[in-house]
Amino acid sequence: MKRFRKNIKNPIVSCLALFILFTGLFCSKPKAQEDKKISKPSLQDKNARMVKPWGKIKLDLVASGFQLPTYLTHAGDGSGRIFVVEKPGQIKIIKEGEVLSNPFLDIASQVRSRESERGLLSVAFHPNYRENGRFFVNYSNLEGNTVIAEYMIGDHPDQANTKSERIFLTIKQPASNHNGGGLEFGPDGYLYIGMGDGGAAADPWGNAQNTETFLGKMLRIDVDGDDPYGIPEVNPFIGMEGYRPEIWAYGLRNPWRYSFDAETGDLYIADVGQYKWEEIHVQPAKSPGGENYGWDILEGFNAFELPEGYDLDQLTMPVLEYDHDLGCSITGGYVYRGKKYPSSTGTYFFSDFCAGTIWGLKKNSKGEWEWAEFLDTQLAVSSFGVDEEGEIYVLDYNEGTVYQLRGVEE
Ligand SMILES: [Ca+2]
Ligand SMILES: [Ca+2]
């Protein structure tokens, strides 16, 4: 496997010339401390095994000209349209292969995007969007705080009503980095909101393990419940003192991208690491929630701020970690469930913003996690996305391009 090089080949140049998303402190990262390996038990033994790729993929250019694209998705309304989110505050539509000149949504005047991890970060369409025209965005407001808000379709199907905003949540951000950014509806119809730990480095405020804050969490809300939103009755901490009832899982550092397997409902969370380890957690569809994913006690499988005598059984371990020889900021993707490329079926594709490598992760026939390098690219992969057919797309942040990930069938 090749080591990553291009985006951080020259740290000075890359930090000045490129927006380094997600890690934020990359430019000033202290040298990693010597790894404090946990020997009892040897947790790293549980890491997914690197194997030869079990298929071939390629990337084909679909559209270009986007301004710092951060996300791509579809409306699930049968229109076949693809929606591309731009960090400065617009959402563009790709319709029958053409990028429409008028944006679907333009809220740039209320979005703060000059810092690398702030801006318009994602959109999620209501599962019944075709009937109700409701969709949801995650952006940084002019004060730099996270806003989760609803918008409605306008008079024309290709243009939202910019005056329809209904704010669900405003979450104070103590630093400009680690804002999370994802929004995904689960198979249960609830909205999952991934929140970073509040930023700086090493979670100085202890947010990820603090169950009274939204930071460093996966939240789950019911957008069809009370005004402005309801709490699902089966949320794991509902009614418990010392816990925000919105919390679905905690102990996350910066879950920038996460997604549900469209077939199994399993939740794949790619959590951006601190000095050394990038990681993926997989939450089974049958999980009742409440997992503690470890940050900042652990980074990946490794001790970070591990208290003396801490019972590691309280934590849910990742299925995969990789160190900073291979990248510096993981970009979670999707499990392929499209119909066109059967050799990719069931493979979770993901990448790294600094490295551009596209990897696949999958359980083998014995139920053991394996991963492999599928493609070496020069892209700054800010996100993946899927269309209505379940086909996967890859966004290049620096070039503003959208590629389709295609299997190369033998
Ligand atoms: Ca800390
Ligand atoms: Ca973790």
Keywords:
single chain; 410 residues; mainly beta; Neuraminidase; 5-stranded mixed β-sheet; 5-stranded antiparallel β-sheet; 35% strand; globular; disordered N terminus; binds calcium ion
State the gist of this model.
The protein has 410 residues and is mainly β. It has a single domain (6-407), classed as TolB, C-terminal domain (Neuraminidase), CATH 2.120.10.30. It has helices spanning 11-17, 129-132, and strands at 49-50, 57-63, 69-74, 82-86, 90-95, 98-99, 105-106, 120-125, 134-140, 146-153, 160-171, 183-185, 191-194, 217-221, 247-250, 257-260, 267-271, 277-283, 298-299, 302-303, 320-323, 330-335, 348-352, 358-363, 369-375, 381-386, 392-396, 401-407.
Q: Can you put this structure into words, describing what you see?
A:
- The chain has 410 residues and is mainly beta.
- It has one domain (6-407): TolB, C-terminal domain (Neuraminidase, 6 Propeller), CATH 2.120.10.30.
- It is 3% helix and 35% strand.
- It contains 2 helices and 28 strands.
- The chain has helices spanning 11-17, 129-132; strands at residues 49-50, 57-63, 69-74, 82-86, 90-95, 98-99, 105-106, 120-125, 134-140, 146-153, 160-171, 183-185, 191-194, 217-221, 247-250, 257-260, 267-271, 277-283, 298-299, 302-303, 320-323, 330-335, 348-352, 358-363, 369-375, 381-386, 392-396, 401-407.
- Strands 1-25-24-23-22 form a 5-stranded mixed β-sheet, with no helix packed on it.
- Strand 5 and strand 6 (98-99) form a beta hairpin.
- The longest helix is centred in the N-terminal third of the chain and has 7 residues, at 11-17.
- It starts with 10 loop residues before the first helix and ends with a strand.
- Mean pLDDT is 91; it is low at 1-34.
- Residues 271, 279, 293-295, 298, 318 line the site of one calcium ion.
